[in-house]
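Progress against Task 2.4 (sequence-to-structure conversion) is shown through the following example record, which the project officer requested during the mid-term review.
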Amino acid sequence: MASHTLSRCLARWHGGRGPSTVIVMHPRSTPSHVWQAMSRPGFLLSAWPWRAAAYLLTGVVAGVTVLVALVTTVAVGGVLAIVLVGLPLLAATVLVGLPVAAVERRRLRLVDRDPAPGAHAVPARPGPWSWYVTRVRERLTWRELGHTLLFAVLLWPAEALVVTVALLFPASMTATPLLLATVGDGREAKVLKQWTVTGWPAACGVAVLGVLLLAVGAYVLGVAAGARAGLTRLLIAPREGELDARLVELTRSRVRLVDAFEAERRRIERDLHDGAQQRLVALTMTLGLARLDVPPGPLADQLAKAHDEAGRALAELRELIHGIHPKVLADYGLAAAVADAADRSTVPVDVDLHLPGRLPQSVETAAYFVVCEALANIAKHSGASRAEVRGGYDGGTDGGSGGRPGGGPGGEPGTGRLILAVRDDGRGGADPDGGSGLTGLADRVSVLDGRLSLSSPPGGPTLLRVEIPCELTELSGPRGPREPSGPRESGEPRKSGAARTSGGASAVSDRSA
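C-alpha cells generated for the chain above:
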C-alpha cells in the first residue's frame, strides 16, 4: 500500500503580536502499517517483525478461546433448548461477533495504526430488546459473525502454521550450537527432531542458516500479518457505502434541526410581536391618555415617568424582536435586511449586495446574523472609520463568480452559492479566541456546509469572507422595493435604500456618520 502525504497548515492571527507560527505537518517518518514498513530498508531492524509475530501469536490464542467459547455456548444452548431455557442463549449466539470484533479492532493496531472504528447504529429506543433488534438488522453484525466463525475454524490454525514455519523452526535451527553444548554433551544434537548434527562446524552452519531463515521469516510474518489484518478490516470495518449512507442521514438530520430552529425563532418572534409588544403598546397609550386627564402635580409626574419607562420597555422589546428574527428579513430578503443592519451600525458602512432573488430561509438568516455580528465586532474592537459589505449570488454555471462582487473561483459547476465579504479599515489583529464571536460565526456557517475565512494582519485591514452553498427559492418579482425599516434616532437622516434592476435585486447603502 503506497504511503500518503498529509500536509496541513494552520495559521492564526493574534492582535498586536503578528501571525502565530505556521504549523506544517510533514509526512510521517514512521510507517502506519506493516506493508509500508516492509517497503523500507530498515524493516528487519525495526519493531515491525515483532509486532507482526505478536499479532499472529495473539491471534492463535484468541482463536482458540473463541472456538472453545462458541462450541460451549452452542452445545449448552442446544441441550437447554429442550426446556426452552437455552433459546435465549442460542439467540444471543448471533451477537457473538460483536465482542470478538471489538477485540480484533484493538489487536489490529499492532500491524495497522489506521483506526477501524465500529459503525453500529444507535437504537431508536432504550432497552435491551430495541438494542437486540437494531443489531440483528445491521449488515455489520452479520459480517462480524462471519468473521468470528472464520476466525474460529480457519484463521487461527493458519496463523499457528505461519508462526511455526517462519519463527519457531528458524529459531530452533539458530539454537543448534546451544543444544549441542548442553543437551548433546558436545557430541550430537537434533535439528527439528529430524536431522542429527555431530560436530561443531555443522552446528554453526545450521545456526547461520537459521539466522538467514529468520530474516526471510520476518518478511513472511509481515506478509501473513498484513493479509490477516486486511481481511479483518474488510469484514469488521464499515464499508464506504455504509459510511456514505450515515453521512447522508446526518446531513439530512442537521438540515432538519436547522429548519426546526429557525421555525422556533420565527414562532418566538411572532408571539412576542403579537402578544407582549401589543400589550406594551396598549399600556403606553393608556398611560398617555391618563397624563392628558390628570392635572399637573405629583401624580402627573409619576404618570409621566411610568409613560417614559413603558416607552423604553417597548423600544427594548422591539430591538429584542428584531434581533431574534427581523421582519424586514422575512418580508424583503437578505439585501434589504443587510442594508437595514448597516443603517443601524455606529460605523459608516457601504453595502453593495446583488441578489437575483430570495434564498432559503436558513441561508438568509445565517448570512444576516454573520453580517450583524461582523459589524458589531467592527464597532467594538476594530477602531475602523469605515466598513463595507459586498457580495452576491454565484449561480455556478462557469465555476466562477459570475462577475458579482466578492466572487471568486472555486465553485462547482451547477452549484450556486452565496458570497459575502465584510471589510473594514481598522487596526486588524482579530483573534478567534479573544471572545469576538468569530468561532460562533464559523459554527453557524459550517452547519450549512459553508466556509468562513478571515484575513486580519496587524495594522489591518480585516476581511471576513463567507461562502454558503445554496439555490434560489424564487427570482425577483416585479414588486417595487421597500426601504428597509428600523428604529433610528429622531432627526437622523437615512441615506440607505434599496434599488431593484432588471438584472436582480440590489441593496446599496452609504450611511454617513
